[in-house]
Amino acid sequence: MKAHDGLYIDGAWRSAESPDVIEVVNPADEQIIGRVPAAGPLDVDTAVRAARAALPAWSATPPAERAARLTALRDALAARKDEIAETVTAELGSPLGFSQAVHAGVPIGVAGSYADLAAAHPFEEKVGNSTVLHEPIGVVGAITPWNYPLHQIVAKVAPALAAGCTVVLKPAEDTPLTAQLFAEAVHEAGVPAGVFNLVTGLGPVAGQALAEHPGVDLVSFTGSTAVGRQIGAVAGAAVKKVALELGGKSANVILPDADLAKAVNVGVANVMSNSGQTCSAWTRMLVHRDRYEKAVELAAGAAAKYGDRIGPVVSARQQARVRGYIEKGIAEGARLVAGGPESPREKGYFVSPTVFADVTPEMTIAQEEIFGPVLSILPYDDEEDALRIANGTVYGLAGAVWAADEAAAVAFARRMDTGQVDINGGRFNPLAPFGGYKQSGVGRELGSHGLAEYLQTKSLQF
Q1: Percent residues over pLDDT 70 in the chain
Q2: Hey, which residues are catalytic here?
Q3: Which of 9, 30, 58, 315 yields a CA-CA distance of 20 to 30 A from 67?
Q4: pLDDT tens for residues 294-315?
Q5: pLDDT digits over 98-108, tens only?
Q6: Is 394 exposed, middle or buried (CB count within 10 Å of its CB: 0-12, 13-18, 19+)?
Q7: What torsion do the CA atoms of 214, 218, 224, 225 make, to the nearest 10 degrees?
Q8: Of the candidates 227, 306, 297, 300, which has an alpha carbon nearest to the alpha carbon of residue 273?
Q9: Parallel, antiparallel, or unpaired: how do β-strands 455-461 and 12-14 relate?
Q10: pLDDT value at residue 288
Q11: Would you identify the family this protein belongs to, as annotated (predicted)?
Q12: Region 255-281: what's the mean pLDDT?
């Protein structure tokens, strides 16, 4: 794992115009593991110009050739799987097994899915006396978060390349080394110069410059709702398309006839995964009052098993944020049944797996995204009450429903104001659209719906 001291622009590693650097810190031991350039507006401008210059040739490249480059990219990522996992573990703090299976493994599959879609997608179709063309939208500014550093990059860059767009990527400043490995894989895959460009930098500097740049046609951002609003405002002023995947406060609804032990154990695992740093985590568990205390007991026991199984959160800033929410929950009257605000280790940005009971819907911990290993358990009286609580936040990203009667679970899920619902622990599907309702975002990622975000439509009448 060696950090590049340049930016990847126009097919080569180049020195940044800005002299500033970002220090990359291992959150498990607080040691500096690398330094990367902190790009400024001039660097962003150079990258956008390179993407703009490469756009005509790449957009005219036959879909089959674009698919071949994506297949080569998938293979290049697969060859680096161990290095990717080790790098994510070093800069994010994820346990190595999780990094290998999820942080490295899932994006390889997603890259392959877009190779298949690029080859098979109907970029032209007949509608009556018209030929409808689905054309690349242009230059994409992709701004990605730190919590799934490679997956979020692949979920944006792969469909953009499949569509015929060119890309400037600004990854999160906490996890830039994984983005550099991705750039190496792009180069090895033979993607033409300028089609993909990487600028490492700070969000308020490089990210803002990218979002504001007049040479960018679409801004695809994953991160907080607050920053998403800012990007939406900037893009709106320029009548520029945005795709926003934002926050979540997802409900895990356990209906009265569900297998309670399974639903609770899977629900706790979902929240503790990736140290709680997952936008779609089921951070609100809703249980009927008749089974509530048993669910609380099961959840507290399950959470206790994660004490030495989860990694740290990404930074000291994030640790302080999560601990602040835990203190807020206690202050507002929630009952702490596992964990707490005290750090479980002297070194590193660790947070104890935490479970709150007696949470009411209006409490801060039931309304705001915490982004840490914190679960709130809320009681409900009947299904209408459960639905009211489940839909009672500004978010609508994901959720879950458990019931012995699958038809009843599906009926409940259809009424949830959220973009994705797992029924009885349904498996992740990389081809299913992912994205939110309400303030959880605009647009979709993954599969054909994710590809469609990077296309615009033209009709020819005959």
Answers
A1: 100
A2: 245
A3: 9
A4: 999 999 999 999 988 999 999 9
A5: 999 999 999 99
A6: middle
A7: 90
A8: 306
A9: unpaired
A10: 98
A11: Belongs to the aldehyde dehydrogenase family.
A12: 98
* 318 three-class SS: helix
- State both tokens at 370: 């915490």
Q: Which two tokens stand for residue 208?
A: 């803002």
Give the pairing type, strands 437-438 and 395-396: antiparallel
Over residues 234-256, mean pLDDT: 96
pTM, full prediction: 0.97
For residue 316, the model assigns a pLDDT of: 97
Choose among 167, 166, 68, 80: nearest CA to 116: 68
Extract the tokens encoding 162.
């499949």
Closest listed residue to residue 64, CA positions, set 132, 6, 146, 121: 121
Q: With 90 as the cut, is the pLDDT of residue 251 above it?
A: yes
Element (H, E) at 338: strand 335-338
Report the run of H or E that residue 187 belongs to, with start and end: helix 176-188
Kindly report the CA angle at 169 between 433 and 438, in degrees rounded to 5?
40
Torsion of CA 319, 325, 327, 331, to 10 degrees: 170
The enclosing H or E element of 68 equals helix 63-79
